[in-house]
Structures are given as structure tokens and as C-alpha cells.
UniProtKB/TrEMBL annotation:
<dbReference type="InterPro" id="IPR048395">
    <property type="entry name" value="Glyco_hydro_31_C"/>
</dbReference>
<dbReference type="InterPro" id="IPR011013">
    <property type="entry name" value="Gal_mutarotase_sf_dom"/>
</dbReference>
<dbReference type="InterPro" id="IPR025887">
    <property type="entry name" value="Glyco_hydro_31_N_dom"/>
</dbReference>
<keyword id="KW-0326">Glycosidase</keyword>
<dbReference type="Pfam" id="PF01055">
    <property type="entry name" value="Glyco_hydro_31_2nd"/>
</dbReference>
<comment type="similarity">
    <text>Belongs to the glycosyl hydrolase 31 family.</text>
</comment>
<dbReference type="Pfam" id="PF21365">
    <property type="entry name" value="Glyco_hydro_31_3rd"/>
</dbReference>
<dbReference type="GO" id="GO:0030246">
    <property type="term" value="F:carbohydrate binding"/>
</dbReference>
<dbReference type="InterPro" id="IPR033403">
    <property type="entry name" value="DUF5110"/>
</dbReference>
<feature type="domain" description="Glycoside hydrolase family 31 N-terminal">
    <location>
        <begin position="41"/>
        <end position="208"/>
    </location>
</feature>
<dbReference type="GO" id="GO:0005975">
    <property type="term" value="P:carbohydrate metabolic process"/>
</dbReference>
<dbReference type="Pfam" id="PF17137">
    <property type="entry name" value="DUF5110"/>
</dbReference>
<dbReference type="Pfam" id="PF13802">
    <property type="entry name" value="Gal_mutarotas_2"/>
</dbReference>
<feature type="domain" description="Glycosyl hydrolase family 31 C-terminal">
    <location>
        <begin position="593"/>
        <end position="679"/>
    </location>
</feature>
<dbReference type="InterPro" id="IPR017853">
    <property type="entry name" value="GH"/>
</dbReference>
<feature type="domain" description="Glycoside hydrolase family 31 TIM barrel">
    <location>
        <begin position="251"/>
        <end position="585"/>
    </location>
</feature>
<dbReference type="InterPro" id="IPR013780">
    <property type="entry name" value="Glyco_hydro_b"/>
</dbReference>
Amino acid sequence: MPEFIGQLPKNEPAWNAISSVQSFQRYTQGIHFDCDHNSRLTLTVLSPNLIRVRFSPNGELTPRRSWAVNLPNAEWNIVDFNIQETNELITVETEKIKVCVQRHPCRIMCFDKSGNPFAHDTDLGIGWRKNQIINWKEITIEERFYGFGERSGLLNQRGKCLTNWTTDSLDYTMLTDEMYQAIPFFMSLRPNVGYGLFFNTTFWSQFDVGADQLNTLQLKTQDSQLDYYIIYGPEPATILETYTQLTGRMPLPPRWALGYHQCRWSYDSETEVRELVKQLRNRRIPCDVVHLDIDYMQGFRVFTWNKQRFPNPKKLIEDLKQQGIKVVTIIDPGVKFDPEADYQVCDEGLKNDYFIRRVDGQVFHGYVWPDRAVFPDFMRGKVREWWGNLQHYLTDVGVAGIWNDMNEPALNDRPFGDVGSSKITFPMDAPAGDEEDKTTWKETHNLYGMNMARACYEGLEKLRSQRSFVLTRSGFAGVQCYSAVWTGDNHSKWEYLEMSLPMLCNLGLSGVAFVGADIGGFTGDASPELFARWMQMGMLYPLMRGHSMIQTKRHEPWEFGQEVEDICRKYIELRYQLLPYFYTLFWQAADKGEPILRPLLYHYPNDSQTYELYDQVLIGSDLMAAPIYRPGVEKRMVYLPEGTWYDWWSRELLQGSQHILIDAPLAKMPLFIRAGAIIPLVSVMQYTEELPIDELRLLVAPGTGKFTLYEDDGNTFAYRDGMSSTTQYRVDLEGNQVVVEVGERKGKWIPIERKVIVEVIGFGEQEFIDDGSQRRLVYQ
Ligand code: GLC
């Protein structure tokens, strides 16, 4: 880590502080406040619940960067707001909130319409000195904090100091701060009040969430100005919808990417891959995707194939396709520095000046898998385009997705494994980006991984006429627009199983819905019991991928004995049965920015029982799981929120607003359905496209509720031209009867002829041929 990151030289001058407002002017979208010593504060009203706050010590705001993920102010509709002025305050009021700016000294205070305060500046307000700016805010005793991108530990992040600086956080633990992803966004919750804050800085930044002082939040950045968005909810769903309006939403992935992925470092030869797929199919373990880790390459040269181990990748991939398997290959950003050999990627990059140079003009080198490597500057449009096109080396032979790794970036100053070799990053003063907004890596370090994923996504979109799968280890706010994310190198230990749920939930609460952790754990050897429990939890992960490290015990489901293999099969099958439900949740994420895996607080934000509940999770709004994540545990406590619930396995009715003790022998992961739920299910398949879906089952839990099913071809981009459809189902209780209403199918996409079976728990089944028309089914 370079010296000036995170710490300041000892002789640094004292803090300057924001002082009084001297004058203010209204403009179309907000207000400018001129403060003492030429400093300037600007409030921009982007929507009734979204206000951008900017402060510049010298009064100048830097122009918008080409890589800024948020929409420029100019693209937001003009919103109505009122200004009121007293001797003490200038108040901006929208339909949803009030933001008051106190004149002497200048402080910002926010209130909802009931007068509940939030995000108030403390007595210190805003302060700055060279290379650092801080805003101090009050936090109330009841407030809890979530999101912050990828975070180890449990759900609520209050009490921690959280740095936003992408890092290869290999061997991370509960205590690790800097992670692979840096997403400077959080949401704060207390009963009836909820807001989000997006800290719009790509420089090193940090949230101190009551770590230093119990009731103070500090926003710190090494940017020269302060820039953040206040997003009022109060519901988490509203906060996320608005946050993803700013930073973007995920595109719909191909449906096959929702199936089971099997990965290992490495299935390193054609023979091994064929054998793996044979085992999967013979043992009837459903699977859609096999990942190839670094050993498929020739000497770790990206965009090459090892000719001995994979003599004919095209034929292999074609044969796997016949068996319903897609291939995803890993790509790292480090390009082997190999000017003597005939290695086109290196040659082209050098010739066209695509690689990062030091400030003195020398091409920068670091050491990764291929030893000495050079690194593309993904901040430049031309470089991204070049890199995007390079994916053709893989797509030409039929690769359907790319896994972007080591892109924090992860590199060393000497060859990996050499004594004394240590982690480094790009020199902070090295130039980055295109001419128009040329800067240094101090500003763009956090964006490296995301821009690699972007180059890959944009390349694949051009090269393949269908949806592709993109996975990345590193990213920044907005990474969801290009890629799914996995939580890097976890361990085959119970603690990591436990931590995975809250980690994935916090990612989901940061706008990144398509997320997963390595099932079974990456480093180390899983025990049979751990593996079985992990597969149960893993079927809930939006990205369901088993992965393990080189030299560990094999981690395929059949490696742990018959009992565990059967358990794995049962839960992978359940995932495949639930595919129409999951696919609709992915659409909700693409449409509104909703998470797929949701902590209970997402749907029960006024129930403070849910605030620390990290070991239960909702999949969508209607299914709730309470997995087991400790050895030897065969019973656990489950919190049922308000309402009525049904046990998934026994169909027993359970009253909400209570804790229950539930049995969970090894073969069982406790799972519940909310009363009023309508869950679409299909029959088990060995891969998502194995059979035409000529039968759809709706499992209905008596109560009041609705569900909108989303469907399309699952593979092409035709949905963008309206080739999709939605069907709304409703359930209600009328006296002793349960009534299920099937709405008319809307949209242009027409499923194949199918039977729909509607099963109401405790009331039996009815069925009909789905012609897209409305109908009403009565159960008594
Ligand atoms: C990194 C990745 C891991 C991968 C390995 C080899 O450690 O996080 O998933 O298997 O590199 O490519």
C-alpha cells in the first residue's frame, strides 16, 4: 500500500472546517450555498427522495468523469421543491423529505415528513486538509447499518470502520476490512425511518460507522471534494430502487446461469472435464455449467489454450453442449510479458500502447500466474474495446461465459512463491484513462475490476448473439450492470458457511443481486457434513457454484459418500424445480434493483427483531430458509415474522411473530412459505434446457397475496424488444374458501402449450391448459 493511502504525513496542517453560509442562490435543480473562504456547498434535487450533496473547499466542482456510474444530473427530470428561509435555516422541501442547511455554522440536517431526523451533521460538520475530507454525521441509538458492498462478518455493520479500496483479500476473516469489491453505499434503518447514502467517490474512502465514536458516522475520502447522495426510503426496497436508478441494474442473465455450476482449480484436461460431466450425468446431479480455471491456458497466457491438455476445445465444447453443459473460462488481467514469443495479446498491447505505464513512461510490470505480466488500462475506451474483442479466442470455440479474476488487481513485486515476494498495486501516480479525463490510479484503482468486467461484458455482447455469463471478483458501485460477483477465496470451514449468507445479503443490499460464495469452501478440505450443509445453503445463492482450490480434496458431490451425494442431489433438484421462481426474482432485480437473497429486514423493516437476524434469509418475498451452519446441530431456533407461515416439508401451518424450535437432521434445511405465497415450480431436469416446460405447478399457501411470473426465451436479447410476458396470480380467502385468480398473460412471449397445476396447501389441486386467459379457481 502506498504511503499516502489511509495515513497522512506527520507534519500535515491542521483541519479546516466549513464555517458560515454567506449567501445562496436557487437554480433549476437545487441550491448553491457560498460559504466563508470561497468554499461552496451544492444541493441538487434529483427526485423527491434523492438529493445530491456536494461540497468543495475551493468552490470548484470537478467536471463529471466519463466513468462515473451515476446518471448525470442533466438526465434527471426536473423535480418540484420549495425553499424556506429563516435567520437560522434554509430549508429545501420535496414531497418526501426536508433538507435544512443551518447558516452559522453551516450544517446539513434531514427530516422525513413526520419530522424524524436522519443523516444530521454533527457539531464538526465538514472538515478538510490536504488529501482528505471528512463529513461527521450523527447516528441515533436505534440505527443499524447494512450494505457497504462486500463485507465479512455478520449483517449489521455498525461499530466498524469500513474502507472502500479493492484488494485481493485472500484469507479474509470476520475482521478483514478491505475486500475484493469496494461499493461505497449503505442503508441505515430504524423503525419507520430508513435512508441510503451513496458516497460518490472513486478515491480511497472510508465509513467509520460508530467505531471511533459510538454515535458518529464519518465519511472520509482522499478526494478533493465531498460528493454524496442521500436516498430516502423509508423501506429498503425504495432505497435500492433509487440507488440502482443511479448506478444501474443488472441485465437479465441467460436462464442456464441460474443452474448449478461446477468448478475446480482446475479440471485441467479434456479427459478430466469429460469424466466430470459423465459423472454428473450418470449420477443424475443436475448441472448447467462447468468452469475452467487457469490451467486450460498455455503457460497462463490469457486467450490461449494448452494444446496438450485441450487439443480440440471446439470439439470438447460442442460435445458438452450436446449434454447440456456450457463452458465458462477464467481470464485474468495480467498479460504474460512475452515479447520474444509469438504471443499476439502481448504484442498487440505493446504495439498499441494499451498497457499501464509508470509516470516515467516505462511499461509497468508485476508478477502474477504467468510470472512477469503487463496490465491493460481498462479505464480507456479503446483498450476495453480491444479486450472485449479478444474474447473471440474463447467464444469462437463456443465458450459461453467469462470469469474475471485477480482484478483488484492482485499482483506481486516478484514472482509468486519467491521469498520476500509481496503484494503491490499499480503505482498511485501512474497515468490512467483517456486523454479527456486523464488521471492517476489514485482515482481509478477501485474501478479496475469493474472496467475489466465491463470490457468483457461489452465484448461478449458483440461477439455472441445471445446472453452470456460474466463473473468478476472485483468491482465498484454499478458492477451489477456488467457482471455477477462471487465472494472470492473462502475456506472450507463452518465460519465461512455462516458468514456467506450475511455477506451475500449485504451485497444484495448494495445493488448487486447476482452473487454467490464458493460452495464447499475454496481453501481446505470440507467434511461430508460441512459439504452437505453447504449445498443446502448454496441452493439459495443466486449464483450456485461449487469450487475448490488446487491440491485440496476433490469437492464434487459424490466425493463424500452416498448420504451426502443424495442430499446434494435433493437440494440441487430443488433449485431446478424453483427455477421459474428464481428467474422471476432475477427479473425483479433487473427491473427494480431488488435483491434475490434478502435479509428479513428487507420485508419487515419495522420489526426490529429482524435487524440482527443474519442466519435466516428470504428468497424473494415468499420463501424463507433457516439453514444449519454448525457441526452436529440438528435443531435450530427460527424466527417467524408477522403473519402465517407453512413448513415447506411438512406443510404444517405455523403462526408468525414467534420463535420456534425446528428439527433439522442432516438431510433437512428448514424452509418456510409465507401465507399468500404463490410459488411456480417445474419438474426436475438435468439442465435448464433439457425438456420443454409443458407443465407448470403453482404451489399456493392459503392467505392473501400475489405473484407476477416473468417469462421469456431465457437466452436471446429478444426480451429487449418486448418478447417477454408476465402473468399475475392472486390468492385470497373468502370465508372457508380459497380463491386463486389467474390474470391474463401480458406481453408478446408465448410459452409452449402447457398444463398448469394449481395446488393449494390443504385444499388439493386443480389444473387447466394455459391459453393465457384469465380464470378463477375456487377451493373449499
Ligand atoms: C484466485 C481465485 C480462485 C481461482 C484461483 C486460480 O485465487 O479467487 O477462485 O481458483 O485464483 O485461478
